[in-house]
Structures are given as structure tokens and as C-alpha cells.
Amino acid sequence: MAVPPLTRRLLELIDASPTPFHATAEVARRLEAAGFQRLREEDAWSLQPGGKHYLTRNGSTLVAFEVGQEPPGRAGFRIVGAHTDSPNLRLKPHPELSKEGYRQLAVEPYGGVLLATWLDRDLSLAGRVFVQDRPEPLLLRVPRPVCRIPNVAIHLNREVNDKGLVVNPQQHLPPLVGLEPAQADPEWFRAFLAAELSTDAPVLAFDLMLYDVQPSTVSGLEGEFVHAPRLDNLASCHAGLEALLAAQARGPAPFTRVIALYDHEEVGSQSAEGAGSNALLASMERVALARGGSREELHRAVARSLLVSADMAHAIHPNWSDRHEPRHAPRLNQGPVLKLNSEMRYATNADTAARFERLARRADVSLQRFVTRSDMRCGSTIGPISASRTGVPTVDVGNPMLSMHSIREMAGSQDQERMVRVLTELFVG
Predict the structure, then answer these.
(1) How far apart are CA 293 and CA 66, in angstroms?
(2) How far apart are the C-alpha atoms of 223 and 218, rounded to whole Å?
(3) Which residues are 146's β-sheet partners?
């Protein structure tokens, strides 16, 4: 089974994006290579039909759009929303720890992390660092392994295989980064950062997190699978980007094409750069106003729009198949998944599901459907948050995957190409 070139590009994007800051920078780089120009929210915007632009917020959220040939009040917006963040371990402001002769780093979980998967991995550090006399942050990615969270030997935890491993986030997660020297510098970590960044400027603040240095790969007897970190949800960010660029190559559209890639979905989206912010709605309003419209134009545009909330879906697990609702158990390499929930933890309704089904049929792609078992709690996405924030009709979809929220996740090598085909139809109209 040949791996599509598009799937290879997905793995390249993931490996270039150990943090939301790197993901945003990588998407921006690919957009600029395709002719998109950066806008700043603090500047006045001058937009023309066919104009290709993007903006970033906090360096971790990105909104990109191609202005439609028709005013938004007449043609609306076609939007793909996803998120740049993934569950991981993040450094505390004063991370320096010393215990039993080891140097360690104080970390805390971000999002719903499968904690045990972070043990016994070759880990490193990435994120952004602010230094004196420089307003813009420096992106940092240490490419080599620098730390590890060692498991405890079975000889010291004899019941682990019968009762399971219980990981206390405060006690068991600080990674080992070295041995404590005889003359310890209390600011050794900031000295390490300065050396990695090749700067003499004092370090003022940072957003840093751990990541696994093992690269993404293709697996299976016939290359059926991909193994990678952060598939949830960089795979959806990549699909939205690829669809936007593919649709652009097929010519202009009457409506405005948009991708909105948010930070902080894994912790509730309630931030200035999350899906609960005004990042998308403000961009839509500014496009409407720049086309000579008014607030009335924006409200008309909202009613004519469609938002596809793209976030990964739960594939059926052969060893845990009882956790799935019968007849709603997605399988790898059998196409994108429509996600539904009666309590609106997903934003899909019959109308938006039918609209997405029509797009899939035009793309000659079969869809699957996912509903959580009635006796299990359903997760959520940016879909309901974006829908309630903007009023845009929304459908929740995603490609199926296994090991969600693990340090290393698993998906089908064929599904990415199918999702991109459907999203391209959304942007073609």
C-alpha cells in the first residue's frame, strides 16, 4: 500500500512542530510560499477580492483567508477550524529541581495527558523564550535528547502488572536532566537556555514544553499506519491548510475561504487566542467591512456560511472494542468521521451533517459516524465553542485514530488524503 505524498507532508509538518508556536510558524511559512501575506491586527487592513492573507495571535493561533469575489453578505464564508495544541508536559516558571544528586525539571500536565506514555522516552525541550531588549520571542527547539522520566523497576513495584501504574503528576513526572555538580548554580536552567539560544541577554520568561525526539514514521506490513506525536490535532491543521491551497489552485470562489487554527483547545479554549476568543469573528467582520459592508453585512454573511470543526476521532480499538457504540465504530483507512452528540458536545446537526455528506459524495469519499456510548462521557471540540461564538452553522468531523492523547499516536496512512479531498470541495463550492 503506497503512502500518499500528502501523508508524507503531514509527517514533515508534525516533525517541524513540537509546540503550538512552531506549528503556527510552519503553517505561516507554507502559506507565504503560496503567496499569502501577513496582516497585523493592530494595523488597518486593505483587502481586495482574491487577496490572500493570514494573521497570528500570541504566536500560537493563526487565521488565514482568501477574500471571495463576492461580498460576504452575498456569498458568506467557508471555514475549517482546528487546533494547534496537544496534551503534553510543560515547565513551571522556576523549573530547577535537585533531588538525590540529580538535576530535574518541575513540570505540570497540559490537557488530558496519558501520563504513563511519557515515561522511558527520549525527551527534549521546545517552545518560546523572551529575553531582555527584544520584544519578539525566540523560538527554541533543542534537537537532541536532554531529559528522561525513568520508570520504576518492577522489583520495586511488584503489583504494577496486576493493578496498573499510578503516576502522581507532582511526584513522578519531573524528568532527569543531569547530575548535580558540587558547586551548583541556582540559575543553571536559564544559563542553559541562553547557551542554546546563543544569547547573552537575560532570560525574562518562557513557554517551554517537553517533546519526544523520535521522528514520525509509517508502519504496518503494507504501510497502512502512521505513528506520530500530536496527530491530535496537527493532522487537522494540515488537512485544512492543504485543502485551502488545493482550492486556491482551482481558481477563485465567490465566498471567502478561511482556516482558523487555535491554541488552548485541550484546556477549554477560554483564552485570547482560543476558540472562545474573537479571533475568527473579528477577522470575518473586518473582511466584511473592508468590502464596503457594515455590521449588517456580517450578520448576513454568518447565515450564509459553514464551519467545519476538524478534530481527530476515536477509531475502534481491537483490544477495547466494548468501549464503542454498536454501528458507530470508525475504522482506520475507511474515511473521515462525522461526530454527533445529543447534548451538543459536538456541533453537528442533521442539516450540517447532510451538507458535509454532499461534499464527501462530490469528492467520492465515504464517511463514517461516531457516537459515544450512552454510559460514557463524551469529549468536545472547538465546534460548539466556535458555533456559539460566531453563530455559523457547524459540523464536527475528524479522521479516526488510536492512542489519542498518548505521547505517540496512531492513524491510517490513507485517511489524510481523503479528508483533504472533502475539505477542498468545501472551499471550491
Answers:
(1) 17
(2) 6
(3) none
- The predicted-structure confidence for 288-333, as pLDDT tens digits, reads as follows 998 877 889 999 999 999 999 999 999 999 999 999 999 999 999 9
What residues have CB less than 8 Å from 183, skipping those under 6 apart? none
User: Cell numbers of 305, please?
Assistant: 456560511
Distance between CA atoms of 260 and 80, rounded to whole angstroms?
6
Separation of CA 17 from chain center: 10
Q: In this predicted model, what pLDDT tens digit does every residue of 81-96 receive, in sequence order?
A: 999 999 999 999 999 9
Strand 337-339 with 394-398, pairing: antiparallel
Q: In which residue are the cell numbers 490513507 written?
A: 414
Q: Cα Rg for the chain, rounded, in angstroms?
A: 22
State the angle between helix axes of 415-428 and 350-362 in degrees (0 to 180), rounded to the nearest 10: 100
Q: From 172, 157, 146, 423, select the one nearest 308 (Cα to Cα).
A: 423
Which residue in the block uniquely carries the three cell numbers 447534548? Answer: 343
**Residue 424 CB contacts under 8 Å (≥ 6 apart), including other chains:** 242, 243, 246, 247, 250, 363
